[in-house]
User: Fold these one by one.
Assistant:
Number 1:
Amino acid sequence: MFWCLVPAVALFGQVRPGMPGPVRDLLTKGDFDFLRGLTRDVLENARLYPEGGGVNHTKGVLIRPGGAYPSFWIRDYAMSLESGMIGREEQEHMLLLTASTQCDQTRITPGGSLIPYGAIADHIRPEDGLPIYYPGTYSYHDQGTKEWGKAPPYDDQFYFIHMAYWFVKGNPNTGLLQRVINGIKLIDRLEIAFSVPPSMEETGIVYTSDEFRGVDFGFRDAEQITGALCFPSVLKFQASRELVWLFEHLGNRKKAARYAAISRALRTAIPRLFMDNRGMLRASTGKSRQADVWSTALAVYLGLSAGKNGYDACQALAEAYKSGTLAYKGNIRHILTADDFNDSTAWEFSLAARNTYQNGAYWGTPTGWVCYAIAQADRDAAKKLAGEYIADLRSTDFRKGPGYGGPYECFYPPDYKQNPVYLTTVSCPYGVFREMIILPPESGN
């Protein structure tokens, strides 16, 4: 039995101009119901409640990434919003907490890195609500050292905007955008955050340098990727479209037009700058400039890669899947095995060993984007990939008891596994599959 597809923009108001054709029946109803139940249980496992004498003293629910991660990570939470399982009070608390910890004064860390005015935290400590802007530490005072960049990751600013967009879209009459937080309205904070990642003047493309490197995306913060950066530029495209909607909601046509122009410029510049001869998008133009599976699939899903460019990207992913260079048990590499930099490393520069963690392990987080993209070129291949993803989740399901830890953050055969009961491994793909079918509202929404 299969459920009917309706346009995603009609269902949940997502801003995806120029989405490719519809994607039907990638999951059976039974598989979808299983994924929904597992996502709900993993999400509950990730919640930190403020009551009961626990470690959360922020006076509201926080959602951790799962696994061994003890804090509230902005990107993991924002990437889970499309699950539709996070209620209004929870969303409001985490949005306002993130806004209240936005950097209000540019400063240099003891390790010699910069925290710019307007930066959004990488993660926030639940025990005291202090922001940590850099990966690799839980210390407020010792954060910001060279191996994790000289500037905070560039993605969190755009995910902050996504948090606000998602909340206002579901709760349009709260007036939260005009709420003053530490002397600055939320809508103004969103604009400040949007301008933090360094960008090329002509195109708006996010970039970094060897001398003053920032992490492009926290799901590869152990890698060195420099030059013009694809993934945060794709996120900037999404954020610009969301700001268009937010300013239209406020009746500010001038600001809406400004961000619409930015989104158009990015839509033109991203494929022109990053696309290789297969249709894949490269991660960057400097170090680690290999074709990037995650950027390629997300660009298709957001409607950024459309027309011939989009089809070429979908075809390239479909061919890679069928050749065995893309996926394992329904989980996805950052880089095709055929595109590894050499026999010692997947990315050109990495803090992780080859075929571990972000340097060649397989991740479930992008599986939904990849299934969506492959389905535009080869529906049967996409359906097979989706089925393999669900089969692996069923076999490792943590609810079976001791000895089971799925969904894992990432893994590599035969024995490497990283962080059990990991949220975005299910919440992110579930959000994609959820948009493809007619569903009743989730509880709490």
Number 2:
Amino acid sequence: MPLFPQDALNDGVRKREVFGWAMYDFANSGYTTVVLTAVFNAYFVGVVAQGAQWGTLAWTLTLALSSVLVMIVMPALGAYADLRANKKRLLAISTAGCVAGTVMLAFAGRGDVAWAVAAVVLSNTFYAIGESLTAAFLPELAKREALGRVSGWGWSFGYFGGMLSLGLSLAYVLTAQARGEPPTSFVPVTMMITAGVYGLASLATFLLLRERAVPQAQAIRQAGLRASVERLASTWRRARQFRDFSWLLACGASYQAGISVVIALAAVYAEQALGFKQAQTMALVFLVNIAAALGAFGFGYWQDRIGHKRALAVTLAGWVVMTVLAVMATSPGLFWVAAVIAGLCMGSSQSAGRAMAGLFAPTEHRAEFFALWTFAVRLAAIVGPVTYGVVTVLTSGDHRLAILSTGVFFIAGLLLLIPINVERGAAAARDKT
């Protein structure tokens, strides 16, 4: 049985187009891996904020600000993309914005807090918009019964893109450190590497991926913004007809809050609580990406076999175990074990959520529904890291208690998963198609 069967795809969809779609996951993963997880977050706290006690909270508030912006613009933007059938054009704009913002990060040095904050807000806002738009292509490519595995293909391939950016950056960092260069010398180069990989790899997406949606009559009759807002308001009013999607949004907002902490603050925790050095942290994140790629790929097949709900529950239980191990770790060894578990759960849980959102999305509302999913994820990106930052401030820098508080989000996600009826949610989407 082939690993990438043609019968998993909708009629008229070729494998090379799926490859082009997956290349966007490959392209943008370097941003989260290098900027948010492995390099710039710790650099922001230790160098830009000059090690001040408020540095961690400042970092989390910066990410929160970008998430607020996404929450404001993305739902209406998703509705606009559906009406005008221009997901691909908007994706190109968001890609250019994130690449430009990442280049700006290269010019943030010691004490340049305002510049760094502006660059992070710009780049992370455009990153989130692009992530939502590319996810909206998934139901156009994959059959409903294969959403899990196709989502897994893209998500797992994406981690290899993250490893490419991180590997190139790590090679440069090790060379620069051997020459005795300070972080203010080699971290900016890693930002340029990340921006370059993002921009170049995304070209495959724009060359191979087709826009299958067609403009809707409402877009022709009305101005874009007005039609988008009216469309969004209509969806909110009819939300009771999509109650399983609503429960999924609540569940996703909860567990994604915990994942946001891991993405944004794992390197900070490793350096502040366990004394990791920059190269050690980057090597750790590299291992996490390998585990995440394997988890997302293999899990997608398993998800389609045992069911979306059960599979997601397993990954959330894994996250709880990871949190306990991270808190217990007093030496690098146990923390490395926790990191591998985090990697396996990260790829699988994020891919599973995207697949379930695709299953619950009516055909003519795909970009809009994925925009609402992005709204929930961005809300999580505010609540999770800010909670961590507030705990560190209130406890005079107790990162162990802060990471322990993260486990509450995963437990809440498990509880909010219980009311979801996958068959009922999928049927509601088909009835509105």
Number 3:
Amino acid sequence: MTEPAAPPLPREEALQRTAPLKGELEYIIELVEPGTRVLDLGCGTGDLLKALQERKKVFPQGVDIDEEAIQVCVSKGLPVYHGDLDEGLADFGDQALDYVILTNVIQVLHRPDFLMREAARVGRRVIVSFPNFAHWSARLQLALLGRMPRTKRLPYEWYDSPNIHLTTIRDFQDLLRREKLRIHRSVFLRSTRDGRFVPVRLWPNLLAEQAIFMVSRD
């Protein structure tokens, strides 16, 4: 005899449950100290912020340009505000936060260098993640097919891609040197067949699909 199905969760409780985290987000959570003030730029529907709030007891804030995503965040009890990141972070004071996080955001901005300066002004630490355009699969498609690469991390056609400033690990490191930003931690990741992410120790600019840097102005 089969057991009766469990009754559905009340809407409020269901909204409070953190969605399973994907990709590099678990590695980002490990970098954040408990009880700190965190600003997530381009926070989307707030999965990372909610997980940080629940696991690390952080004081979360978010900024996103998508009104529907903001409404989802608000339904989860997250303080998230509407903002265009290309306009900077004028509403935040210098060193007002412990961490500013940009997860797969810099490549969709018109002025990624400007936002990096703003993030380093506002946060004591800045955590940035982005897809590595120098991964071997992208290089192979360019070399053999002469076409813009499409990968698991970059699945779009050239004409409908939100990515307008794709970068590589080496190019991003050059930007950090130019902006005089210090690297505190770096994590390079590749995906496995079962969808997990594992660290890359050797030749990250060639073998890593995703990069994470924690940097600061000091």
